[in-house]
Amino acid sequence: MQFADRLNNVETSAIRELFKLLGKPGIISFAGGFPDSAMFDVAGIKEASDKALTDEPGAALQYGATEGYNPLREQLAAFMASKGAKDVTPEGLIVTTGSQQALDLLGKTLISPGDKVIVEGPTFLATIQCFRLYGAQLISAPVDGNGVDTDQLEQLIAEHKPKFVYLIPTFGNPSGALLNLERRRKVLEMAVKHQTLIVEDDPYGDLYFGDAPPPSILALSAQVPGSREYLVHCGSMSKVLSPGLRVGWMIAPAELLAKATMCKQFSDAHTSTFAQATAAQYLKAGRMPATLARVRKVYAERAQAMGGALKKELGDAISFVQPQGGLFFWASLTGAGGKVKDGNEFAKTAIEKGVAFVPGTPFYAVNPDHSTLRLSFATADVAKIEEGVGRLGQAMSRA
Amino acid sequence: MQFADRLNNVETSAIRELFKLLGKPGIISFAGGFPDSAMFDVAGIKEASDKALTDEPGAALQYGATEGYNPLREQLAAFMASKGAKDVTPEGLIVTTGSQQALDLLGKTLISPGDKVIVEGPTFLATIQCFRLYGAQLISAPVDGNGVDTDQLEQLIAEHKPKFVYLIPTFGNPSGALLNLERRRKVLEMAVKHQTLIVEDDPYGDLYFGDAPPPSILALSAQVPGSREYLVHCGSMSKVLSPGLRVGWMIAPAELLAKATMCKQFSDAHTSTFAQATAAQYLKAGRMPATLARVRKVYAERAQAMGGALKKELGDAISFVQPQGGLFFWASLTGAGGKVKDGNEFAKTAIEKGVAFVPGTPFYAVNPDHSTLRLSFATADVAKIEEGVGRLGQAMSRA
């Protein structure tokens, strides 16, 4: 069978092979990119879905507008306002089938084969593959503990004149990094200066452990005249409420939103109205603040436990910035004392010792750093985290 | 803003403008393509979703496999077996976000810009636009009351060597036509002879009014050796249970299914597990046969009423084949007695008289027949159908 040429741009994920091993009994997994099912507010979601089917069964079960179910768009605009993005209107956003679909719609709407797109190095794996399927040539901007290096980013924008720049500025996957306030301003200024579209993907921003992070780039755009018209913001219910609903949203300039809506019409017609009506009822019931407070507390404890255990068990053989939110540690193997310095190699030894994580190389669009790895602290409790990191320590001694 | 070149291949839908007029108070609409909300089994769906959230909350709310939720895949394989396609395994299908996504995945997986695809003339509007977004060059095979003309289809296949042929063989949208058994066999034979992939889109096959239609092309493929490897079958819960769930499925040869799964991973990761678990519980509860019996009966009455009213009110000014299932009448204006012969013109007069339908031209990929129109009998009850067709009669006298 002859497939479309665009499939030549992607490889089957190296991670998939690793994930097959996760079924092995007794494995402690730091490999996942998902929230802990045990923390889902099942009662609240059940109440919301029952209410949707009682109060609005026709709408919740019928075809809906491609742009999204209006009661949900209203709730999402209010949710964004509560997070400082006060000028978002219900008409200024569309509901997407998870934020993955927002990425797909951006690719479909904007990328012609050969177009350049700048992403962070490292960045979300499925973003890389998604944009490549549309023929994007990806350029990688380096990230440090304060997020993307904006000086280097500006040079890359000037040099490559990309179709857009894709960033996960807040507790990014996999970097866990938090883009500082100064750099956020700088991103908005360079968007205007270079007339370059910036995509802010923000699935983790609500999962902070201490003080709230700086405002989203979207919220900050009110302070940088002209920047809003170069800004796309993608949000998601997946990490804070439930990935299974597949409810995300995209805020973008009107013209882009209209084209993305047309593309969505032919992608899946609309996002499940059943899931949308459920999410709308959930938000309307006012349960989100308590849910967020609860998950923040649990993830903060787990992040604390993982950071402490990594220092204790792996010492100077590993280096990392303690994350202030999100789901991930991003770490480098230092090779100190002649220890293993290759993330892929370490992943293999680790799985033999009964602990899994994802090596860092697949998260780079280009020029992978082989010493890196991603550890998720989201799905194991503190005891399992300590046991798992202990196994990493054993694997390190052996490797 | 500069959009991707692929957007140049689609026009904004002419229908969208018409649909804006549907909000006018008092309009009777035969324009929609959706089932009647009043017939949704709300109690059954509520029971199913409650059971999903009670028995399997983790799975129903968490990320899931891109291929689909296994309990649903099992139920869908059993559902297909109950309809005569006995060799469908759970692994032989993937769950899609409505059958619209199956079309999108076929486009993404198979169509390189310039590739030829044969569709029926007329065919489903969103199929035309979906494939064009991937750069397909569409060829149109004519349809009569017995479905696609297989002699002409074979000539077109031989001449154009298309990437695939897309058919809605059973109560097609918009044609309402039923491909007869002989032609179904012929389609399978030509798939093998010309080594051409056939896509059978089957959202309406369960909505028959009298005797069951001939077996699906998929079910028949068991009788034509070698044909199964050239066959894709798309199914949907939208017309029989609820469009709002966005649950469809695609059965295809393993290699194609694997590529489509990879594409889906970067399109929306997976279909809502909440909706999938709900659909699985619904099917498992054994409610589908009674639901199907109920909707068949109601739609049969409405189709009967519409056919009778059209003959009475419009006489020889309109010609159509009485549909044996589905949601649509497909009709031609004959121009008899100097009456209006143009579907677009008639639609405008009709809406002034308070009744809406969709003119037929947008359903043609090429060479539209301007005399055609599509009337849905799904959402108006018998009294409204008679009143609406009465208004069509008045519009006809005036036009």
Quick structural summary:
Chain A is of the alpha/beta class. Helices cover 42% and strands 15% of the residues of chain A. Chain A folds into 2 domains: 5-40 and 290-398, Aspartate Aminotransferase, domain 1; 43-287, Aspartate Aminotransferase, domain 2 (3-Layer(aba) Sandwich), CATH 3.40.640.
Description:
- 2 copies of one chain form a homodimer.
- By secondary structure, chain A is α/β, with parallel strands linked by helices.
- The first copy, chain A, has 2 domains: 145 residues, Aspartate Aminotransferase, domain 1 (Alpha-Beta Complex), CATH 3.90.1150.10; 245 residues, Type I PLP-dependent aspartate aminotransferase-like (Major domain) (Aspartate Aminotransferase, domain 2).
- The first copy, chain A, is built from 14 helices and 14 strands.
- In chain A, helix 5 runs parallel beside helix 6 and helix 5 packs across helix 10.
- The mean pLDDT of chain A is 96.
- At the A-B interface, helix 2, helix 3, helix 5, helix 6 and helix 10 of A face helix 2, helix 3, helix 5, helix 6 and helix 10 of B.
